[in-house]
Amino acid sequence: MRSMDMIPPGCVSCPMFLKIGGSTDGHHPGHLGGAPRYASLGMGRVSAARLTDAVERIAVGTDDHDLRSRVLEAIHEFIPFDADAFLLTDPTTSVGCSPVAAVPDLATLPNLIRLKYLTSQNRWTELPASGCATLWNVTGGRPERSLLWREYLSGFGIIDVASVAFIDRFGWWGFLDMWR
Q1: What distance in Å separates the CA atoms of residue 158 and residue 31, rounded to the nearest whole number?
Q2: How many Å apart are CA 79 and CA 33, to the nearest integer?
Q3: In a 10 Å sphere around its CB, with 0-12 CB exposed, 13-18 middle and 19+ buried, how is residue 6 labelled?
Q4: CA dist., res. 154 & res. 121, Å (int)
Q5: What does DSSP assign to residue 125?
Q6: Distance, CA of 17 to chain centre
């Protein structure tokens, strides 16, 4: 797999890549829904082309965990996030496996997984055709509509989640959640 295959088609139009600066709606705190502390970074808009170029430069001769870790590092240089989960999924069943994750409390991981499967908002199998969305956008700025946010993410101060599904003609083969 080429590292470029890690960016789903249509992602350049995803709010995750385009709305990295301040809010344009007057209500959203900016970036990916990040805490106001991110607003002081003055990063402006991220160039999707620069991010794509950074991912393309990643050496492919590694195992899947290392490749995904490197992709996360490249993304993090452009888009600040506090936690992440990058899973492979079975293309037939869409069941997640082989996680690369940095979550606030590993002891609560079973509950996080349970809630992710029970929540339709930003679930990898429910994302728009672009393959990406933010929790803030899919809930109309009301993340409390999400079971995952109400029962897990809000307790860690997470304001928003950018979700990306990786899909090919065989089905879903992975998803990435980045939390702020």
Answers
A1: 13
A2: 12
A3: buried
A4: 15
A5: G
A6: 11
Model confidence pLDDT, tens digit, residues 10-30: 444 444 444 433 334 333 333
On whether the CB atoms of residues 83 and 102 are closer than 8 A, the answer is: yes
CA angle 105, 106, 107 (to 5 degrees): 90
Q: Is the pLDDT of residue 42 over 70?
A: no
- The DSSP element (H or E) to which 62 belongs, if any, is none
Closest C-alpha among 135, 137, 139, 126 to residue 165: 126
C-beta of residue 67 within 8 angstroms of C-beta of residue 15 = no
CA end-to-end distance (rounded Å), the chain:
29
Q: Round to whole Å and give the CA distance between 62 and 155.
A: 36
Residue 18 in contact with residue 137, Cβ under 8 Å?
no
Residue 99 token pair:
């996680």
**This prediction's pTM:** 0.73
Residue 35 and residue 68: Cα distance in Å, rounded?
26
User: Distance of alpha carbon 76 from its chain centroid, rounded?
Assistant: 11
Parallel/antiparallel/unpaired status of strands 161-168 and 96-102: unpaired
Cβ pair 176, 96 in contact under 8 A: no
